[in-house]
Amino acid sequence: MKPVLVASDLDRTLIYSSGALALTMPDARAPRLLCVEVYEGRPLSFMTETAARLLTDLGEAALFVPATTRTREQYLRVGLPGPVPAYAVCANGGHLLVDGVSDADWHRRVTGRLAEECAPLEEVCEHLLRTADPVWVRKQRVAEDLFAYLVVERELLPGQWVKELAAWARERGWTVSLQGRKLYAVPAPLTKSAAVREIARRTGAELLLGAGDSLLDADLLLAVGRGWRPGHGELADTGWTAPGISALPERGVLAGERIVREFLAAAGAPE
Fold this sequence. Notes:
- The protein is of the alpha/beta class and 271 residues long.
- The chain contains 9 helices and 15 strands.
- It has helices at residues 49-61, 72-76, 104-117, 121-131, 159-170, 192-203, 218-223, 234-238, 253-266, and strands at residues 4-8, 16-17, 33-39, 42-48, 63-66, 87-90, 95-98, 101-102, 137-143, 147-152, 174-179, 182-187, 207-211, 226-229, 245-247.
């Protein structure tokens, strides 16, 4: 029997920082939370306990593949419940992990394509450094020598600057995504969907399911048979949709729980 492949974004899709939980209900009715990531000795990311239980069930019923823009180091500090995923997509598709180790051949193929089709990372970093205002930039980072991002003060970030950056980047084969306090500049061919398709080829999976909240997840959702997006994030804010994509009303950590329920139901697994 062909496996069902479930590829999901992590941050603000399945796992949530304290600032993204969106616990708007009375405190006494708030869901119990499980910490799934600790950074520098402090709890950083959470799921509901119910979502954790459901994700464990999903890991036993389907091939679950985390598909994240996180670097390998950032991904490996997340302790998801359930079986350890045999495959994971990191750096927005720049690294395909097999049993926790990056597939060197895949990485060479990706970097070769970026060199042929996109402006150099150094040019993009120089442009960000030159045009971004230190008043609203807190950090500038390069991830895995593949893409760059800024940590910004969101309320001070000029919308016009973001639009101008996106147009400048598009002419050079790059794309821009604003997720919470992080603004990403990513080569357009660097996609989660390409890595997920490679995993499907290797495993023989025919039914692909996916979820994500940002514009960097749009290509992943277009590549799967059925997909879900939460009621928050870039995709929700822009009203993005496509055939086979369900827009969920839930926001915050309860959206993550709903997404895992939808995965289980679509995979044909009982809760």
